[in-house]
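[User] I have long wanted to understand how a fold can be written as tokens. Those tokens are not coordinates but codes from a learned vocabulary of shapes. Could you go through the record with me and say what the backbone is doing? Thank you; the sequence and its tokens follow:
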Amino acid sequence: MTDRVRVMIVDDHSVVRRGLRMFLEDDPQLEIVGEAADGEEGVRLARETRPDVVLMDLLLPKLDGIGATEKIREELPDTQVIALTSVLEDASVVGAVKAGAIGYLLKNTEADELLSAIHAAAEGEVRLSPEASARLVREIRSPQSPETLTERETEVLRLLAEGKANKEIARNLGISEQTVKSHVHSLLAKLGMLSRTQAALYAARIGLVPLAQVGRRGD
């Protein structure tokens, strides 16, 4: 049996935290390692528990979800953050992604989709609600003077934008997972971007993949 995905919940409403915990604990592949009621507590608890995935509300006291996401991603690059919120304002969506969130889901997301997104995030896959994708792609600016991507980097970018994890990209291209990581690092540096999510949206903006396909895994 593979290791369970370690999940932390950050939300200022105790009833939301309790509901999420009860629901997520039904999945034997998930382990809830902590809950936090504000952004500062969320950052502190993330340092202590080092979760694989954080479910982050955006409207939080003391430190908002965008600020908490940025701190967690800076200090714990292996921890992925999914914004799980009722807010769908352009500034919030863009801010969360720029802060390093790999996913952006609304609180009315179906249960099975949330579970899928958590497992996907643990593998480094981008997951976005369709509403968030539509707002984000308008805000992702083309780099001022981007370095030209190699053919292989472009292929990696396309597969990344389709929501594939590094191991799937490696299998598709017949290369090692470590080589995929190197290509991802290189293409992000060339594009001047900080996250896979930004790169995926850029791929949609330039027509490499359809917008509807970004972060919406197909079989």
